[in-house]
Amino acid sequence: MAAAEDQKKKTRKDRLEYFWMFYKIPAILVVISIIAAVSFIHAWITNKPSVLDAMLLDIHSDVTEENMEQDFVEAAGINPDRNCVTISTSQLLGDGSRDYQMASLAKLYSQIGTGTLDVVSMRESDFVKYVDAGTFLDLRDLFTDKELSAFGHVYRDEDGKILGIYCEGMAKMKEIGGYSSGENGIIGILYNSEHVEMAGKFLQYLNESE
Questions:
Q1: What digits encode the pLDDT tens for the residues 40-63?
Q2: Whole-prediction pTM value?
Q3: Mutual orientation of helices 65-76 and 196-207 as an angle, nearest 10°?
């Protein structure tokens, strides 16, 4: 009986691996299309232009996305009746099942490709994978030397560009429990962000304590 059950589990696993091997790209494209459609419908229904879209990958916080959004809206002086802010914390690249990782990666690629994502944080080992692709804005183009020094530990590439801020030194990130255990995270602004100034305010907001 146990052998039959093991064989059944093995067969299911083999099917999943077969599907992943041969249908990975189509599946990712379907997920991207669904995400784009949902984003469009949400924007059309709410009729509120977005002024910031941030994705904090692989954080494990007890603070809800809604509370984070509301707190930043108040801190930045944004009128919630006219504009909206989206802070996503549920995506995982390093934890969770492979299907969940695939869905999270698809959402990340979709938002970068459509230019709707402004800020992203991820574990350092993931962040460095995107550096050579020119994914992140050089923060020297946005902040003065004095403002950058307030962040503490920054990430520089081989050319000296400052592409991210280490999350371990950001007070607000500590308060919400982001990257509080295990590998450190880095946060940066996307090269094609349409809300660079607001993205900069968000990084400064995360760096400030209550």
A1: 555 555 568 999 999 999 998 889
A2: 0.78
A3: 110
Low-confidence spans in the chain with pLDDT less than 50: 2-10, 19, 22
AA identity, residue 160? G
Place of tokens 């550096």: 131
Give the integer Cα–Cα distance in Å for 169 and 171.
6
- Beta-carbon contacts of 155 under 8 Å, excluding residues fewer than 6 positions away, are 124, 127, 162, 163, 164, 165, 166, 186, 188
Beta strands in the chain (DSSP E): 50-56, 84-88, 119-123, 154-156, 162-166, 185-189
Closest listed residue to residue 192, CA positions, set 119, 142, 122, 94: 119
| Distances from the Cα of 46 to the Cα of 34, 41, 51, 152, angstroms | 18, 9, 14, 38
Residue 6: the pLDDT is 47
- Nearest C-alpha neighbor of 131 from the set 102, 160, 157: 157
